[in-house]
Design goal:
The complex is a heterodimer of chains A (114) and B (112). Chain A contains no helices and 11 strands. By secondary structure, chain A is mostly beta strands. Chain B has strands at residues 4-7, 10-14, 19-25, 32-38, 44-51, 56-59, 62-67, 72-77, 86-94, 99-102, 106-111. The chains are: A mainly beta (114), B mainly beta (112).
C-alpha cells in the first residue's frame, strides 16, 4: 500500500490567480496521476506524471493551464493557472504500483475559485 | 472510448438490508476493475480490485463480481450499516491498467 499526503486540503482563491497542489508519497513510485472531480461529477484524469520526463496530458487538458512537476519518485505538484470559477473542483493525486495493485489516492484538494 | 455507468445514482435503505450496486462499461478490453469508497474530505479508499481474469472478489461483507463479456460488475453489500454510507465509485483499468476510467458513483445512505 501507499500513503499519500496532499496539500492544501482546501483553498478559496481569486480568479486569475494560480494554486499549486503538492502530493507526497511515503514510498517511491514510478507513476503518479492527477485527477479532477468537478461538482457532482466523477473523476477525470488530467495527466500522468513520470519522474524525469514531461507529463502526459489527457485530451482537454493542457500544460499551460495545468503545469506539473515531478522532481523525484515520491513527490509531484499540480498547478492550476489563471483560475476561473469553472476550475472549482476537487483535485486528487493518485499512484499506481503495478497491475496487481489497487490505485491509491490522496485525500484531495477542494478548490473554490471566486 | 471507454465509458462507465453506475446505477442507481443514489440509494437509501434501512440498516441491515443487503444491497447491490451496479456498474457497466462499454469496452470489454479492460485490465481490471476497482470499487472505491469516497467519503467527504477523505479522498478515495480502494475496496476491491478484480483482475480481468477473475470473476469475483470478496472482503468481509463486500463481494464484487465481474462479467467482462457483458460489460458489467456488481458490488454486493451484506447486512448494511450506517457506517457504509458513502459514495461508491467503480473504475476500470485501461492501457495496461495504468489509467482509470470512473463511473459517476452511487451515493448510498443507510438509515438507522
Amino acid at each position: 500500500s501507499a500513503v499519500i499526503s496532499q496539500k492544501p486540503s482546501r483553498d478559496i482563491c481569486q480568479r486569475g490567480t494560480s494554486l499549486t497542489i503538492q502530493c507526497q508519497v511515503d514510498s517511491q513510485v514510478t507513476m503518479m496521476f492527477w485527477y479532477r472531480q468537478q461538482p457532482g461529477q466523477s473523476l477525470t484524469l488530467i495527466a500522468t506524471a513520470n519522474q524525469g520526463s514531461e507529463a502526459t496530458y489527457e485530451s482537454g487538458f493542457v500544460i499551460d493551464k495545468f503545469p506539473i512537476s515531478r522532481p523525484n519518485l515520491t513527490f509531484s505538484t499540480l498547478t492550476v493557472s489563471n483560475m476561473s470559477p469553472e476550475d472549482s473542483s476537487i483535485y486528487l493525486c493518485s499512484v499506481w504500483q503495478g497491475p496487481a495493485s489497487s490505485a491509491f489516492f490522496g485525500q484531495g484538494t477542494r478548490l473554490t475559485v471566486v | 472510448k471507454q465509458e462507465v455507468t453506475q446505477i442507481p445514482a443514489a440509494l437509501s435503505v434501512p440498516e441491515g438490508e443487503n444491497l447491490v450496486l451496479n456498474c457497466s462499461f462499454t469496452d470489454s478490453a479492460i485490465y481490471n476493475l476497482q470499487w472505491f469508497r469516497q467519503d467527504p474530505g477523505k479522498g478515495l479508499t480502494s475496496l476491491l480490485l478484480i483482475q480481468s481474469s477473475q470473476r469475483e472478489q470478496t472482503s468481509g461483507r463486500l463481494n464484487a463480481s465481474l462479467d467482462k463479456s457483458s460489460g458489467r460488475s456488481t458490488l454486493y453489500i451484506a447486512a448494511s450499516q450506517p457506517g457504509d454510507s458513502a459514495t461508491y465509485l467503480c473504475a476500470v483499468g485501461i492501457q495496461g491498467a495504468q489509467k482509470l476510467v470512473f463511473g459517476q458513483g452511487t451515493r448510498l445512505t443507510i438509515n438507522p
